[in-house]
Design goal:
The complex is a heterodimer of chains A (101) and B (226). Chain A has three helices and no strands. Chain A has helices at residues 3-19, 31-39, 66-91. Chain A is extended and about 50 Å long. With 226 residues, chain B is mainly alpha-helical. Chain B is built from seven helices and two strands, in the order H-H-E-E-H-H-H-H-H. In chain B, strands 1-2 form a two-stranded antiparallel ribbon. Classes of the chains: A mainly alpha (101), B mainly alpha (226).
């Protein structure tokens, strides 16, 4: 299978996970937050300077429908990560490589 | 419904240790940039970009673990074995920066701590463990995936120990170190199972279609049965 095809399949799978599967994710606190709550230092957490970001907490502000709100957040996140990730690795790579099939 | 916050927020760790972590992280990211320029084959560069995207998506999927808590992929082991440790450090860093800046997940002043624990420690420790085990295990697919599983598993409690050290040095709450260590390692010893499963399934899928794309499978004489 060509690398391009694998990357395309992986990208579509990532979109699907971020936009659709994410709705079914557990909303329990994650390991760190759980520990912080249990042993009593969760109250030292401060709001992020970007806590009012329209995408804070992986939902899209202004969209009432939860499923849609998470989906939009997921899609935007995948898009931004793709932009930054593919962009970075198009610059940071070996230049003189012998091509692999 | 809200997806849980996943990373270290502002306030847990004081400014001095946060800045120290930022400096250490910056050095590692610089080294990783140089390392990836040596290591990352041009043909595989798109796969490195995809790794960042895939890790972002998978981190949205918190899976339940015991007693009202959840866990999520870190992705350091996955990235290290798939695209190499240095590109791996960069891929996870990209994800953490997007999450902190856009999704308010992980404090802005805590970015160095999060990068240090998850991009640097998880990725590089997973890689070191993977390489050690790869030498000891049978040179076949089972051996390869077993090394992958153990490296991915251990990377999670090791990251939790990283947090514990930072908390010991700069935690803003006065809590007994052994309490933090026990709780963090205890929970993350369970979460690591999820990391191992997701990492093995993903690496196994890529091995099946194109084993030459898997960094951990190149530069080694192992026979992966395909």
């Amino acid at each position: 299978m060509e690398t391009k095809k694998i990357v395309s399949i992986g990208f579509v799978a990532s979109l699907f996970v971020a936009a659709f599967i994410s709705f079914y994710a557990s909303s329990h606190p994650d390991g760190l937050e759980f520990v912080a709550e249990q042993i009593g230092f969760l109250n030292t957490a401060k709001d992020s300077a970007v806590a009012t970001s329209p995408l804070a907490n992986y939902s899209f502000a202004g969209i009432e429908n939860e499923r849609l709100s998470i989906a939009v957040a997921g899609l935007v996140g995948v898009g931004l990560t793709a932009l930054f990730g593919f962009g970075l690795f198009s610059m940071v790579k070996k230049k003189d490589s012998s091509p692999r099939k | 419904m809200k997806l849980p916050q996943m990373h270290i927020p502002d306030g847990f760790i004081n400014a001095q240790i946060s800045v120290l972590a930022l400096v250490i992280s910056a050095v590692f990211v610089y080294v990783a940039l140089q390392g990836a320029k040596r290591q990352l084959d041009e043909k595989v560069a798109p796969l490195a970009g995809l790794s960042a995207v895939f890790i972002f998506a998978m981190q949205m999927i918190n899976f339940p673990v015991a007693a009202g808590t959840s866990g999520h992929l870190i992705g350091g082991a996955l990235a290290a074995i798939l695209i190499g440790p240095w590109a791996g450090v960069l891929a996870v860093t990209v994800v953490l920066i997007v999450q902190a800046l856009v999704f308010a997940d992980g404090g802005l002043t805590a970015i160095g701590l999060n990068v240090l624990n998850m991009s640097v420690m998880a990725t590089l420790m997973a890689w070191i463990i993977f390489r050690l085990l790869q030498r000891m295990f049978p040179k076949n697919r089972i051996g390869f995936l077993s090394a992958t599983a153990i490296a991915a598993y251990l990377s999670v409690p090791l990251s939790a120990i990283g947090f514990t050290i930072e908390f010991a040095l700069g935690g803003t709450a006065a809590i007994e170190l052994s309490t933090v260590l026990g709780a963090m390692v205890g929970v993350h010893a369970v979460i690591g199972l999820g990391e191992a499963i997701i990492t093995v399934l993903t690496i196994s899928a890529v091995l099946s279609v194109r084993k030459d794309l898997v960094f951990g499978a190149t530069n080694s004489k192992i026979s992966l049965g395909k």
